[in-house]
Design goal:
702 residues; alpha/beta; eleven-stranded mixed beta sheet; eight-stranded mixed beta sheet; P-loop_NTPase
Length: 702
């Protein structure tokens, strides 16, 4: 795998040799999922790519090039640019029915007809054509894993004896990794690339092409450079792309489009520079300031200056002040935009004068359609969308509409988590909002940087469990901490893809959806786990991680909707799927059962010591520098150690140097843990115990 970044120019140059342009007239029947883009966007800024995986020998062209990125980071624009540059067609799975075997040949037959079908397939094999397949992640969601793999088999069949690169595939990271591993198993030469965030120079180029400032060039550049520099560490330099020192998320197109929207309507660059520089905002705070500046500017320059004066004629001064203050607030703008997406009516009682309110609503209904957040009738980028959701979910008045939007319209947007983190001063997450935040953060996961989630019991009442929720990123020291109240009689839904997760709380967990993916390591210790899924998929995830461990009082399989669940395991041989419970769960999960009473033969005091030891060790997480670490205050908390036995166990682990202290954290010494306890971290998670473990426990005073 190369550590060097790859330019789009080099990528296209490596593919285009020998290609014969695809002609649009070859399409006999127009189908929305099959098209060709014939015009190159002059404002497009070419991204850089990093190589995630490759099984291709040097000097040989890959049969398949896979390109991955987080959601809403520019894949569609890249797809169109590739199509126009290579003069090759696009097959968009988001506009297509669920794929399975013969989906490709069926598409070719429908679009090109019988004669052209054979010619196009032959051109794919001979290196004269390339098919660009976009939205692999959406195609994956629509069908079963077996159906999706059957679709990949068609690509394998065409690619196996082809020349050149017959396929370019684009989608979100997790699905693209699945495709890469599948092609590798089928001995197809493939290369998985990741779209890198823009460098500083690319960011400037992107903004310049959108603004095209010709008059106040110097003032414009001062403001532009100030904004980019103030995003402090989120844009990368070229050397940082190569070294992969950290993951950047603000260097993606949606954030730059937000900055562009700010600058497009600005006539006083110097004044804006002075206003922003006084705030001293950095990073995400600056992005939020930019979003709110655009909203406030729309009120000041449009509504207050153009719409309200006519409506307020002949009104007294106090009435005018009230309206000017309350009308078109940030919350109101966000709510109107949200309801516009839902095609639902919206109105507010701005004053006690119903006639005035009616006149205001009549006028504002037209103005909102010209809002700077919109492109056509849709919210134009993920930053604006994320801000609207994060802002309104915190307002009880609009919460119900937000959840409706999330269910009907929303796709994971990487900025939602970070904007919500800044707006939610109380640091409280509603349990029903949790899966959206979790999936937002997870959308940035790739081979080099991944998120983790840790949910622990903080305190309990008769009706609720109050949990500490900790999000982290593997490539940063930062942690994001929230509190979440979970109803004891309800289920906490985590989402349909769970990875690098640890849950230790007496709550009920729901694993729901047509497909549920668990990517190692996942450890869930809770009251009840309910599985309501057709496909239950286990992925190997992080190398040498424990696997997927459920420890619960009850593991329940819900067959009420007629499901016939199947378990597909891609775990490594040293990883396990284990369900530790009192009763054996139903098929097909029965083979993974381990009776939670396996420690019954131990002396009661030894059993208590072991359970405390296991509880302490299980709290440790993979640290950003590769070590297993945990903050000392978390380990020393009486909820973990208890009052007597647990404190003695912790003291023995420290004395024997299984744990060592460094700054504010404890770390596990992997050599000492095996030397002293006779088991590894993973084996302790799996409830394994041997004579050496028992000997260690006996050395601890009762």
């Amino acid at each position: 795998m190369s550590n060097e970044s790859l330019s789009l120019f080099r990528l296209i140059n490596s593919i285009e040799n020998g290609l014969v342009p695809f002609e649009a007239k070859a399409i006999k029947k127009n189908i929305s999922s099959f098209s060709i883009n014939e015009e190159v966007n002059p404002k497009y800024v070419q991204p850089l790519f990093s190589e995630l995986y490759s099984n291709v020998q040097q000097g040989i062209s890959p049969k398949v090039i896979l390109i991955s990125a987080a959601g809403a980071t520019g894949k569609s624009e890249l797809t169109n640019y590739l199509s126009a540059s290579l003069k090759m067609p696009i097959f968009n799975l988001s506009n297509h029915s669920p794929v399975a075997s013969n989906s490709l040949t069926g598409l070719f037959f429908d679009c090109l007809g019988h004669l052209e079908l054979g010619k196009f397939v032959e051109k794919l094999k001979s290196g004269q054509s390339t098919l660009i397949i976009d939205a692999l992640d959406e195609g994956y969601i629509k069908t079963t894993v077996q159906g999706f793999n059957s679709f990949l088999d068609e690509i394998v069949e065409i690619s196996s004896d082809s020349k050149g690169t017959p396929f370019i595939l684009l989608g979100r990271t997790q699905v693209m990794e699945h495709c890469m591993f599948y092609f590798d198993e089928k001995n197809i030469e493939a290369k998985l690339l990741s779209i890198e965030p823009f460098t500083v120079d690319q960011a400037k180029d992107f903004i310049d092409k959108q603004i095209n400032e010709q008059k106040y060039i110097q003032q414009y550049k001062v403001l532009r450079d100030f904004i980019i520099q103030s995003v402090e560490g989120f844009f990368q330099s070229q050397s940082e792309v190569n070294k992969k020192q950290y993951k950047s998320f603000i260097g993606y197109a949606p954030v730059l489009l937000s900055i562009t929207k700010l600058l497009q309507k600005e006539s006083n660059y110097k004044g804006l520079f002075e206003e922003l520089s006084q705030k001293e905002d950095k990073g995400v705070d600056l992005i939020i300031s930019i979003v709110e500046y655009i909203l406030q500017r729309d009120k000041e320059e449009k509504i207050k200056l153009q719409l309200l004066p006519n409506l307020l004629k002949h009104r007294d001064e106090r009435f005018c002040e009230l309206v000017n203050e309350k009308a078109y607030s940030i919350d109101e703008q966000c709510a109107r935009l949200l309801h516009l997406q839902l095609t639902k009516s919206f109105s507010i009682s701005l004053t006690e004068d119903t006639q005035f309110n009616g006149q205001y609503e009549e006028k504002i209904a037209d103005w909102i359609k010209e809002h700077p957040f919109l492109e056509g009738s849709k919210i134009q980028n993920a930053v604006f969308e994320s801000y609207i959701i994060a802002r309104l979910i915190l307002n009880p008045i609009y919460k119900e509409s937000v959840y409706e939007y999330l269910k009907l319209k929303y796709k994971d947007a990487f900025m939602l988590f970070f904007i919500y983190d800044k707006l939610d001063n109380a640091k409280n997450i509603e349990s029903s909002f949790f899966p959206y935040l979790y999936n937002s953060l997870k959308s940035l996961d790739d081979k080099f940087a991944y998120s983790s989630i840790n949910i622990e019991e903080k305190r309990c009442s008769d009706e609720h469990v109050i949990c500490d929720v900790e999000f982290a990123l593997s490539d940063r020291e930062d942690q994001y901490n929230f509190e979440m109240i979970v109803d004891k009689n309800a289920d906490l839904y985590l989402g349909n893809s769970i990875s690098n997760a640890s849950i230790n709380s007496p709550i009920n967990i729901l694993l729901d959806g047509n497909r549920c993916e668990l990517i190692s390591p996942v450890t869930i210790n809770c009251h009840r786990i309910t599985i309501n899924s057709n496909e239950f998929i286990l992925e190997k995830g992080i190398k040498d991680s424990v696997g997927v461990i459920f420890e619960c009082d009850e593991c329940k399989i819900d067959y009420s909707k007629g499901q016939n669940p199947t378990v597909l395991s891609h775990l490594d041989k040293n990883q396990k799927f284990q369900i530790i419970s009192v009763e054996r769960p139903e098929f097909p999960f029965s083979d993974s059962f381990l009776n939670s009473d396996t420690l019954a033969k131990l002396d009661p005091m030894l059993k208590e010591k072991y359970l405390k030891l296991r509880k302490i060790i299980a709290l440790f997480r993979s640290h950003s520098k590769g070590r297993m670490g945990r903050f000392r205050e978390k380990i020393e908390d009486e909820r973990v150690t208890g009052y007597t036995v647990g404190k003695k166990v912790l003291a023995s682990l420290i004395k024997s140097k299984v744990l060592y202290s460094e700054g504010t954290q404890y770390f596990i010494d992997p050599t000492k843990i095996h030397e002293q306890l006779g088991v590894s971290y993973n084996e302790i998670r799996l409830r394994e115990i041997n004579e050496k473990t028992i000997e260690f426990l006996k050395t601890i005073d009762n």
